[in-house]
Write a structure and sequence with these properties.
Mean pLDDT: 80
Structural class: mainly alpha
Distance between the termini: 51 Å
Number of helices: 17
Order of helices and strands: HHHHHHHHHHHHHHHHH
Shape: globular
Strand content: under 5%
Low-confidence stretches: 80-87, 224-241, 434-448, 502-509
Radius of gyration: 24 Å
Length: 509
């Protein structure tokens, strides 16, 4: 039985193994997003100044490390084709897998550093955020880059993304389990839970990357043997002057002329902000808008569904993408977000069931859109390769440059959200009064009743006006994006012809 199971694992399709890497990221990252602010504010009692300093430094590092790591990884691919300097596709994939096999386990270890107090809260907050984000960035960059390196056609890429969404949905079950062990007063059970999650992630990264490396090492060996044989038949070409490597400044200049890239990052900056705003303030909305009307178990259910449903919903969105194209599906989701927010604004905060549906669906559709945007970035990778005639697609670097512009939305979300709430209601999450803990769905104490009307109204306006504003900005920028329809088909055809054109010319036998 064990040998049969092992044989099944070794014969899994590449798309399934690739998608499983999302599982080992999501089981940790969802727990991180949900609890790291609450842990430092409510458990470690970080002060407001240290929190803002940590978030500001994190904002800078979070933005810079993506293009930095992408440049270090992909700078060799930027120059146009050089004589005698070919890099095969299996070699590119193997390079990505080696990076994942090293950084995946380190990412899991950095996750554990949040849940034990080992330094001053302000210092630990800063170091943990920067260390965790560094390893997460390396994992995300190379995992996303493989999406562009393993496939070119939209059908194959949506298939890869399908398994990513499926395994991410399974990984989101960690949110349900975490709610059962989360206790601010007794942290031991939660720490043991996090250790078990990290061990699962380490084992998963090691096994998955090893399986993929064995598969592509075999492909690379076959390709090397073929090329050795073909060298005897290779037609001697006139020597081509070797082109110098492209510098970072030249690459940035190329990106500044890439019109679709610029419009996409404008839209995606707003999307990243909205996704993290929902993650950070979802428990607050549950507490101050619904905790009097729903039970704790219902709040836990809404919390878990909001993390799992986006991935399951994305399976349907991907089928729509195959029929209608990614551009049309994303545009439809923006219109849907705008319409739902306007309906909720008109209905008011007293419609409990509608409010439950809106809070959950707002997060579900917003996260679902985020999952689809990786497909758009892979299309931008194709267009970048065609426009600049690169010898290999600089996938990780382009994902890094997208993150350079859009990652600040992660930091802006909690900062702008807490500032708006404080400006409108006077409610400060950093007050030491335990009544002001905002990241729990537990019922409030009676002494908070005096603040509740203004606070509830402020939370409601924050809930509806943020998605309305985001949807309008995104529809404006997305209308300028032209990489879809016939334009996209032309780019993909040109990429395939460029890739095929890199093979050595062979005598007609």
């Amino acid at each position: 039985m064990g040998l049969r199971l092992l044989a099944c694992v070794f014969h899994l399709p590449t798309a399934v193994i690739y998608g499983s890497l999302s599982l080992f990221v999501s089981i940790l990252h969802n727990v991180f997003l949900l609890y790291y602010v609450d842990t430092f504010v409510s458990v470690y009692k970080i002060d407001k100044l240290s929190f803002w300093i940590g978030e500001t430094v994190f904002l800078i590092w979070n933005s810079l490390n993506d293009p930095l790591f992408g440049w270090l990884s992909d700078r060799v691919f930027l120059s146009t084709q050089q004589a005698g300097a070919e890099i095969s596709s299996p070699e590119v994939v193997l390079k990505r897998l080696r990076a994942l096999s090293h950084n995946g386990p380190l990412f899991a270890i950095s996750f554990l550093a949040f849940w034990v107090a080992w330094a001053h809260p302000g210092l630990q907050f800063l170091l943990c955020l920067c260390m965790y984000d560094s390893f997460l960035t390396m994992v995300d960059l190379h995992h996303n880059a493989l999406l562009a390196d393993l496939a070119v056609s939209a059908k194959d890429r949506t298939s890869l993304n399908f398994y990513c969404s499926l395994f991410s949905a399974i990984g989101s079950l960690s949110v349900f389990m975490s709610y059962a062990v989360w206790n601010k007063e007794d942290f031991f059970s939660f720490r043991i839970f996090c250790v078990l999650l990290a061990l699962c992630s380490i084992v998963g990264f090691t096994l998955s990357t090893q399986l993929l490396r064995q598969r592509f090492q075999a492909d690379g060996k076959v390709k090397w043997d073929q090329e050795s044989t073909l060298k005897e038949l290779y037609i001697e070409k006139l020597s081509v002057p070797q082109e110098k490597r492209i510098t970072l400044a030249e690459y940035l200049q190329q990106l500044s002329r890439h019109r679709n890239f610029l419009w996409f990052v404008c839209m995606n900056l707003v999307q990243v902000f909205h996704c993290h705003f929902n993650s950070n303030f979802f428990p607050l909305f549950l507490e101050h808008l619904l905790s009097d009307q729903i039970s704790v178990s219902t709040g836990s259910f809404l919390l878990g569904v909001s993390y799992i449903a986006p991935h399951l919903n994305n399976l349907y969105f991907l089928s729509l993408c195959r029929r209608c194209g990614v551009y049309a599906v994303v545009r439809g989701l923006f219109f849907l977000k705008l319409a739902l927010s306007v309906v909720m604004l008109l209905a008011g905060p007293d419609q409990v069931y509608l409010l439950c549906i809106f809070i959950a669906s707002n997060r579900v559709f917003t996260e679902g859109t985020c999952k689809l945007l990786n497909l758009v970035v892979t299309d931008l990778v194709d267009e970048d390769l065609v426009l600049n005639r690169r010898k290999q697609a600089a996938s990780a670097l382009l994902f890094g440059m997208v993150a350079l512009v859009t990652k600040p939305g992660q930091t802006f979300a909690p900062l702008i959200g807490t500032w708006l709430l404080c400006a409108y209601t006077g409610y400060d999450i950093f007050q030491r009064n335990p009544l002001n803990n905002v990241v729990s769905a537990q019922p409030k104490l009676e002494s908070a009743a005096a603040l509740e009307p203004t606070l509830r109204q402020g939370c409601f306006y924050l809930l509806v006006f943020v998605p309305i504003t985001c949807a309008l900005l995104q529809l404006l920028s997305w209308s300028q994006f032209s990489l879809h329809g016939k334009r996209l088909q032309v780019v993909k055809a040109q990429r395939q012809s460029l890739t095929q054109g890199q093979a050595p010319e062979v005598k007609t036998i």
